[in-house]
User: What shape does this take?
Amino acid sequence: MSKENLVCLCKKISEETIVNAIKNGDTTVDEVNKTTKATSGLCRGIRCKKKVKALINEYK
Ligand code: FES
Assistant: This one.
């Protein structure tokens, strides 16, 4: 997995994983977190929350 496809660096969650969660029905950052663990790493989402939100807006 190449680094540029990682959305959540702390948890090493790829964009593909997050997009799949959104396509399977997740519509909020909280839901994506429950499905993928993205945003619950050491930085508590400081680095990735914005990107997760952008992906939700793009794919929901
Ligand atoms: S990059 Fe996602 S929790 Fe830190």
Q: What stands out?
A: The two ends are 24 Å apart (CA to CA). The chain has a mean pLDDT of 95.
